[in-house]
Specification:
The chain is an alpha+beta fold. It contains nine helices and eight strands. Strands 5-4-3-8-7-6 form a six-stranded antiparallel sheet, with helices on both faces.
């Protein structure tokens, strides 16, 4: 939680505490559990839950309360994100059609990456990552792309954000991997979570800086339209085309873009 400030807004503070608690939860939370977790009375929590539900920020089910996608939608409505999405979407749809694979776009959000666009593979089968998926930057192919293609000071600041979460970092090994990613112009990494999936990622760069990462979770199979090498080339071509269509002013994306969710990659 943030430190003390000169100005106090108790009702707003309670609402934000509830949203932050629900955002960190993988399952719905009951009113009594929210009350216990925040150290507030049930009557205080009840009023706040009612207001948040009426405004569409949370939803209630038998199991408890959960966060909706309203906060994520607000983040997506920011002009830089909206412009990135409108530019990337046609290129991503064409990429999925030609490759016969799904693809998704991720941006940095604090110490994490968050998926803001996901295109499913054409046909009857395939693997796709859901919009809103979040993962620590250094633990996903997309996140490592976002870390790698940064100026030294920006990369150092992002690594500092990761350390601040308490997550473990092998600085020397990670920096060596990031530098190798830059030299290769992208990253190819088998998913440690799902057998048979290889993440093919490339940076969407504007002014030499990665503002987003384009990733294809490549699924190997006899019915594939293209080889993994060919798909990797398509991903890099599409990322370069999207970056080339953007201007530095259009893509000044805040570092907290996106606010909910979950790349079933590393």
């Amino acid at each position: 939680m943030a430190g003390k400030t000169r100005y106090q807004a108790p009702a707003l503070t309670k609402g934000l505490e509830i949203l932050e608690l629900l955002a960190a939860a993988s399952d719905p939370i009951t009113m009594s559990d929210i009350s216990n977790a925040l150290g507030r009375s049930v009557s205080e929590i009840f009023r706040m839950l009612q207001v948040l539900e009426e405004h569409g920020y949370i939803a209630r089910a038998e199991e408890g309360y959960r966060l909706t996608n309203r906060l994520f939608a607000l983040g997506m409505s920011q002009p830089p994100i909206r412009d990135l999405a409108s530019t990337a979407l046609p290129a991503m749809q064409d990429l999925a059609r030609r490759a016969g694979q799904s693809c998704h776009l991720a941006v940095a959000s604090g110490a994490e990456m968050v998926v803001i666009i996901a295109i499913e593979a054409p046909g009857l089968s395939g693997f796709a990552v859901r919009v809103g998926y979040r993962r620590p930057l250094h633990r996903s192919n997309s996140g490592r792309i976002l870390l790698a293609f940064q100026p030294a000071d920006a990369r150092a600041a992002m690594l500092g954000d990761i350390r601040a979460t308490g997550d473990s970092l092998d600085d020397a090994a990670l920096i060596e991997e990031l530098d190798a990613t830059v030299a290769a112009g992208g990253a190819v990494s088998p998913s440690p979570m799902l057998t048979g999936i290889t993440d093919l990622s490339a940076p969407i760069c504007v002014g030499g800086v990665a503002r987003a990462a384009l990733t294809m979770p490549f699924v190997d199979g006899a019915a594939n339209l293209a080889t993994m090498d060919a798909c990797g080339h398509m991903v890099r071509e599409a990322a370069a085309a999207i970056g080339g269509a953007m201007s530095p002013i259009m893509i000044a994306i805040p570092n907290d873009a996106g606010s909910t969710g979950g790349e079933d990659e590393q």
